[in-house]
Design brief:
Two copies of one chain form a homodimer. Chain A is elongated, with a radius of gyration of 23 Å. The first copy, chain A, has a single domain, classed as Arc Repressor Mutant, subunit A (Orthogonal Bundle). By secondary structure, the first copy, chain A, is an alpha+beta fold. The two termini of chain A are 29 Å apart. In chain A, 53% of the residues lie in helices and 15% in strands. In chain A, α1 packs antiparallel against α4. The first copy, chain A, has a three-stranded antiparallel β-sheet. Chain A binds a DNA duplex through α3 and α4.
Chain lengths: 117, 117
DNA sequence: AGGAAGCGTAACTGATGGGTTACGGGTTTG
DNA sequence: CAAACCCGTAACCCATCAGTTACGCTTCCT
């Protein structure tokens, strides 16, 4: 999962994965759809290979890359733990608890300002 | 989604997110749970903030960080396009895997090879 | 064979990023 | 007001990385 997140974090690699969604492709075919050099694409393919998101197979003098959908599931599961807000409805209570850690004092009126984009 | 993947790609940031899953925390409290320096954690928090995965709120002289679960959904959706119809939260795949490869066709006898694993 | 095609790798470079220490600005508290 | 506290930012160092060109290996075609 670790490597998977890193692999997905790159735009070129995401596009490669999207390309492969239609079916397996040889390295040259993949590289041909990008403006960057073929070795650069080759290294992106290596990252994807190491992450396990794609698998390669030598067919003659071509190297065919194939998607490995199972590999996505692990990361999807990790993310899923955050998508559902499970049950901490007492966000202010928890906050108050943490504030008490540093000042075990009686509280006064608490101003609060927000800073959110 | 772009920034989200990059934010998740780091181990420290993943741990911060996991911490925040229990509820909001001030920056100092978060930093206290890591061996790395507080400014280092502060920069990780900035990355998470910019990615939109967390939101900050000034309370007195503390800066409280809160998880933003909605932000995970976008990336989860992108990843879901690659997961096989294994059957947990995946919609039924109404799309057949069209293996149409736009092969660059030379004017000669076109070696063709289909490869699917 | 011999040459062209397909790909990965090596070597190098500029950009990026995570770590640190030093510092400044806002907020309570005495 | 001054001191202590919380926290982000600036300046800096070192490791990593994405991009390039040059090269070597293997495979297909004539």
């Amino acid at each position: 999962m670790d490597d998977v997140a890193g692999a997905i974090a790159d735009e070129v690699r995401r596009e490669i994965l999207t390309l492969l969604r239609a079916g397996p492709l040889p390295a040259g075919e993949i590289a041909g759809r990008f403006t960057i050099s073929r070795p650069a694409v080759s290294r992106h393919l290596r990252v994807l290979r190491d992450s396990g998101l794609v698998r390669d197979e030598l067919v003659g003098r071509q190297r065919i890359y194939t998607l490995v959908p199972e590999r996505f599931t692990e990361l999807a599961g990790w993310i899923a733990r955050f998508t559902r807000p499970s049950g901490w409805e007492q966000r202010l209570d928890a906050l108050a608890t943490e504030v008490h850690r540093t000042r075990r004092d009686r509280s006064r009126g608490t101003d609060r300002q927000e800073n959110t984009a």
